[in-house]
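*Target chain*
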Amino acid sequence: MAVMDNQLYYDEEHLTNMVNKYDKESHTWSEMGRLPVHVDSFNGWGLAFKGYGEQLLVVSGQRGLEGEAVMLN
C-alpha cells in the first residue's frame, strides 16, 4: 500500500496484479491498471509502493529463467 497525493493505492499481488486506488468520497476501490510483469516475492520481500512526484513507483522482485531481478514500474 502507498499514499500519494492524499490517495491510497494497493496491489492485488497474489490475485490479479492489479493496482487499485481508493475513492474517499464514494468509499470504493477502482482499478488503475495491471502491472506489466507478475510480481513475485524476492529474497523475503514482495512489493513496495512509493510516490515519486506525480507518479507511483512500484518496486518488486521477479524470478525468471534468467535468474532474479529487482523490477521498477
Observations:
- The mean pLDDT is 75.
- Strands lie at 2-4, 7-11, 18-23, 28-34, 47-52, 55-64, 67-72.
- The CA atoms of residues 41 and 47 lie 8 Å apart.
- The chain has no helices and seven strands.
